[in-house]
Amino acid sequence: MDEDLHERGRSAYRQREWAGAYELLTAADRTSPLAPDDLELLTTSAYLVGHDDVGDDLAARAYRELVREEPTRAARHAFWLGMHLLLRGEPARGGGWLARARRLVDEAGRECVEQGYLLVPDALQRLGEGDAEAARACSERAAAIGERFDEPDLQALGRLCVGQALISAGDTTQALALLDEVMVAVTADEVSPIVAGIVYCAVIEACQEVFELRRAQEWTAALSHWCASQPDLVPYRGQCMVHRAEIMLVHGAWPDALDEARRACDQLSGHPAAGAAFYQLAELHRLHGSFDAAEDAYRRASRWIPEPQPGLALLRTAQGQADAAAAMLRPVLEEAVGFVARTRLLAAHVEVVIAAGDAASARVSADELRAIADDVGAPLLRAMALHATGAVLVAEQDPGAWEVLRRAWRAWQELDAPYEAARVRVQMGLACLQRRDPDSAEMEFDAARLVFEGLGAAPDVLRLQTLSRAPATGLLTAREAQVLRLVATGMTNRAVAAELFLSEKTVARHVSNIFTKLGVSSRAAATAYAYEHRLV
Fold first, then answer.
1. How far apart are CA 471 and CA 394, in angstroms?
2. Are residues 220 and 73 in the same domain?
């Protein structure tokens, strides 16, 4: 009977029936302690069904049972226990187990595959410190040891880390080719399930970091299929939901994205990856206009993401607090290093400072974004850069804005990104107003409105209602329109500043921008304009 439990547990493991394997091997272990091979299967099954604490205890037990007779094998258990703890956000305990593994390997005094595994956390540490060259060197040594010992798991982890180091160094072409190669090993079922899950999530995140939208979508679909083939699987399912929600958001499937983000938040409760889940949920609430719900989700995300940006700054902008948004985004942008960290911040910064009436700062960020897009060459980056440049040209009232925006719209269309494409149509409408073509402007606004209404983008629909009621006021940002209303009631700049909690200098800049955009030269003329267009 005991042997029957053992064999049935092994069979369930081979069939990837993780819950069955866990239950059968646990029952067998209660009858008589498992041998090291079966104990390893039970440990893996515990992790794969989400019993992390049990998995930790089993891994520690395997370490203790092997440490005297098979120290390098014990080091392998210590390594994986340390990695699981690190991935769950427990660096102290994780580092302790990795130190134990290193001590055993050093004491063994001979070459072993465990030496290669221990290079992986070293490489990740170097990446975290911003030393891409050292990270790549560690990773290449790990992959080479994996090849020498014919260890597919180590080869995959080593090459994954090499790809991440290449991305950090800016060599995205070589990085993506290597990551594709790693994914072939995963989809060919050449690696263990835990390594497969780690690689899937890491590769998808890398693709998103370098704005490879199509690759991210392809590997997200593959991860979804992989998770679906193992109904008992708990780890990676939550991360998979986050990735799917991100893809759905881009492609306009907002209700599905919202459901997926909510499930991811539930699935990842207490896990460091919950930060990304709550951030994605916050983004969807913000775009729908559920600002209180977005505020709460950003706050939850901040438990794991110290600065939930640029989403929080964009929320403040949507709430009419563009100056506050610019103030909170500025230090984050100044501290961001590398094109991956800076790009999304730059795109958001353009939007925020234009709303704050600071076209000069928007121009600086748009130019940097365009330079990065030209260097990297990713279609998503190109669309973002054209969009930002076009918005700046509208803010500067440059006659060339419409043509740049037309190219941005085509770029978003090619990426099947309806919301971003509709946002460009709004900018195209503003460009039409600047060249005194209200009929074309209304056509652009109508086209955008249909998309926004279909998506449920309430703040964008509301803005378009304002533009359609008084087309010429579309030249003003939300903050400028607010300032104009107060100026039209007879308030001085100082009074407006007190009312809106701004500095007099900021109010003076807004008033100057209003005069320029409306083609007037006095407060009286601006006031007359405000009454004429029913702004007061």
1. 15
2. yes
